[in-house]
Write the structure tokens for this entry.
Amino acid sequence: MIRDVLIIKDGLPLLSKNFSNTNTIFSQGESLMMMSGFFSAMNSFSDQFENLGTVSELKLSKNDLKLSFLRDNSLPNLIYLATFDEDSKGVNVQRALRKISNTFLQKYNVNQILNWRGKKDTFKEFEEIIGKYIDDEKEENEHEFKEKVENLFKDVEEKLNEESLGKTQELPKEIPEYYEFIPRSKISKKINPNLYLTGKMSIDIFKQIDGEKNIQEISKKIDIPPEQVYHICKNLIKLGFINLF
């Protein structure tokens, strides 16, 4: 939020208003005078170097405050300054300062401002107008924050919906028909498969053939993929050991 608004004229604080519960150097008498002179001198210094442009924003290193500046070129040595924290955007603070500047020049004529000689509270009634623009800026930041949160939730919701939709659109794998085939022995159970079959897998499958279990059930029983069970059963058919039903 915007903490302070200061209007400086000829290095003197023409108007100063604190909008937070925390006192700052801009709300204290002597400090305010020194800071007004300092920022006025700094802007005058930048005028000496056209390539540098004007000072528009500063960051204070020992706290979270930033300073935003606006110069009114229609009147000499008139500077608008605002301190603000991380809850506000610099672009929004500059917009608020432009509104304050435009309204200030509409409310008071040029002679009133130019002829001001430092009398305190001459423009005090303008504080109420500044307060309105500060409230507008606060609402704008809250609205932008709310929009960001809403957009974030929308993005998350869309991703979840996409993932959910992708899952629902995944067609279940079609189980091959041979999974249900039941192998039945054509030879006597007295025959020792070890004498006729090579390979442990073939022997294990043959031992599971009881005329009741299908390919898939045999696969689960001995932990062998159904495709391999079916392939070996086809070999057993060629040897004349089984049939498939």
Summary: The CA atoms of residues 11 and 39 lie 8 Å apart. The chain has two domains: 2-147, 177-244. Helices lie at 29-47, 90-107, 110-114, 126-169, 200-208, 215-222, 226-238. Residues 177-244 form one domain.
